Amino acid sequence: MSTVVSLPVNNDVRASFDRLAARVPQVSQSTAEQRIARIRRLMAATLAARPRIYEAVKAERGLSPPDVDGELVMLKMEAEHIEQNLADWMSDKSAPPSLMTLGKKCYLHYEAKGMVLVLPSWNAPYVIGFLPVLGALAAGNVVIVKPSELAPQSSRVMAEIVKEAFPDGEVTIIEGGVEAATALLACPFHHIFYIGNNTVGRIVMRAAAEHFASVTLEMGGKNPSIVDASADVEDAALKTSWGRMCNAGQACIAPDYVFAHESVFQRYVDALVREITAMYNPRGEGFDKNPEYPRVINARHFERIKALVEDARAKGAKIVMGGEFRAEDRYIAPTVVTNTTPDMKIMQEEIFGPVIVVMPYRDREEVVSYVRKHDKPLASYVFSKDRESWEFFLKNTTSGSMVLNHNVVQSGTNPYLPFGGVNHSGIGRLVGFNTFAECSNARTVFEEGPKVVDPRTMFPPLTD
Ligand code: NAD
Questions:
Q1: Which of 2, 237, 293, 298 could disulfide-link to 271, CB 3.0 to 4.6 Å?
Q2: C-alpha to C-alpha distance for 389 and 395, rounded to whole angstroms
C-alpha cells in the first residue's frame, strides 16, 4: 500500500487556508438554495465515483460493494434530510416573551462560524469524511478536509470527488499525514471536526484552544454489551456477530466486550461461534477464502490487534474461536476470547478489530461497577426481555448512545438521532440539525420595541 505523497508543507497549507478564508464573507451569506446546490454537487460527484470508491476500499480493507454502499446510503439520507429541512434550520427562532421583553423581538439567528476543518478517520472514510462537510456547507461555511493517510487510495478518490464538485475550491482537500494535520491545526479555524482515537483527540483539542476554535470530537473506546439472564440468547449472538465482525471490527460503535449472565454464558459463547461461522464462513472453506470477509487496514493495526490477543493468550485467556493471524494480507480470523483478567491489555485498550471478549457475571451491580470504573463509552448495548433490567442498566451507566436488543443500528438509520460520545469517547454531536448547529453560531438577537416607557426610568440615578 502506497502512502500519500502530495503532502503540502506548512506554507502551502497556510496559503490554502488564507485563500479560503477570503471567501467566508460571501459564502456565509448564501441562501438555502445555494447551499443545497453545493450539497447536491458533492453528492453527485460522490455517487458518480462509485467504481473508484469500490476499488479503493477493496484494496484497503477488502470490503465488497454492498458494504460500501451502506456508507453511501447514509450520506445520501443525510443530504436529503438537509435538503428537506435547511430552510427551517436557517430561519430565526423566536424566544418566548418574558415580562421584561414584552414588545421586543428576541430570537436566535444562525450564522456560519466561517472556516471549518475536518480530520476524519479511515474506517468508513466517505461517510466519516463527508458527513461533517454536508453539515458545514448547510450552515454556510467553507471547509478543508484532510482525509486519513491510513486509507491513501480513498484519500485520493475523495480529493478527486471534491475537485470535481468544487473546482473553485470552496471545499478543499489537503492530502497528507500527521505533518499536514499539524500544519492545518496551526491555522485559525473556527470549528474543527476530528474523528479518530482520543490520544490524537487531545492534540486536536489543545491546538483548537490556541485559537479558541470550537470542536466536535468523535472518538472511540471500549463499548460494553450486556446479555442478561432473560435475553434471547440466539438473537443476541446473531446481532453481536454482525455488530462486531462487520468491517473486521473496525467500527467505533462495535461492541468491544460482552458481559453475559452466568446462567446463559456458555450458551451465548456457543451461539456466537455458530453465528459468526454461519455469517462469514458459510461454506466451511475458511474465513480467509470468503471474498466478503474484510482485512485490517494496515500492518500497524494488524500487529496491534495481534499483540492484544497474544498478550491475553500468554496470561491465560482462552481463545474459543479464531486467534489466527496472517501478516501478508493482514488477515485476522474472527476471534472470541474468554477467561480474561483485568491485567490483560485486551481489557484495557480499544480492540478495533475482529476480536470480541466475553465475560460471565453473577450480579448486575458487578457489571455497572465495572463499566463505571472505565472511560465513558461511545455506545453500550443491552440484550434483555426484562424491562426493569434494561432500565436499571440505562439509569446506572452512561455512554454516547445505548441500544436495547440490537447493536450498531443507532448510527446512520435516523437523521433525527444524534451521534456522539461523552467525555473520553467524544464531545459534541453529529447528524442532521446537530451538525448544522455545531458549525453555526446561534447568535442571540434582541430588537428594541416601540417606546412605551421612557428608558431613563430604568437608568441611574435610581434613587429618583
Ligand atoms: P487516524 O489515524 O486516521 O486519525 C484521524 C486523523 O487524525 C487523520 O487525519 C490523521 O492524519 C490525524 N492525526 C493522526 N495523528 C495525528 C497527530 N499526532 N496530530 C495531528 N493529527 C493527527 O484514525 P484512527 O485514530 O486510527 O481511527 C480509529 C479511531 O477512531 C478508533 O478509536 C475509533 O473508535 C475512532 N472512531 C470514532 C468514530 C466516531 O464517530 N466516534 C468514527 C470512526 C472512528
A1: 237
A2: 10
147 CA distance to ligand 1 middle (Å): 10
264 lines ligand 1 (CB under 6 A): no
E strands along 298-392, which residues? Answer: 318-321, 325-326, 331-332, 335-338, 355-361, 379-383
> Left if phi > 0, otherwise alpha if psi is -120 to 50, otherwise beta: which for 428?
left
Q: Is 220 in the pocket of ligand 1 (CB under 6 A)?
A: yes
- Please say if 252 is a catalytic residue: yes
Which residue minimizes the CA distance to atom 28 of ligand 1? Answer: 196
Cβ atoms within 10 Å, residue 141 = 27
Q: From atom 5 of ligand 1, which residue's Cα is the shortest distance away?
A: 121
pLDDT digits (tens, 9 = 90+) for 206-248: 999 999 999 999 999 999 999 999 999 999 999 999 999 999 9
Beta-bridge mates of residue 358: 258
Set of cell numbers at residue 417: 438521532
- Residues 188 and 257: their CA atoms lie apart, in Å, by 40
The answer, yes or no, to whether any atom of ligand 1 lies below 6 A from the CB of 119, is yes
- Is 108 buried (19+), middle (13-18) or exposed (0-12) by CB count in 10 A? middle
> Ligand 1 centroid to 150 CA: how many Å?
9
- The active-site residue, picked from 175, 252, 350, 439, is 252
Residue 317 has a CB neighbour count (10 Å cut-off) of: 21
- Whether complex ipTM tops 0.90: yes
Please state the length of the chain. Answer: 464
Burial (CB < 10 A; 0-12, 13-18, 19+), residue 200, is: middle
- Closest Cα to atom 24, ligand 1: which residue? 196
Rounded mean pLDDT of the chain?
A: 96
**Which of 112-121, 278-287, 449-458 has the weakest average pLDDT?**
449-458
Distance between Cα 103 and ligand 1 center (Å): 50
Residue nearest to atom 10 of ligand 1 (CA): 148
Q: Is 181 exposed, middle or buried (0-12, 13-18, 19+ CB in 10 A)?
A: buried
Alpha carbon distance 79, 74 (integer Å): 9
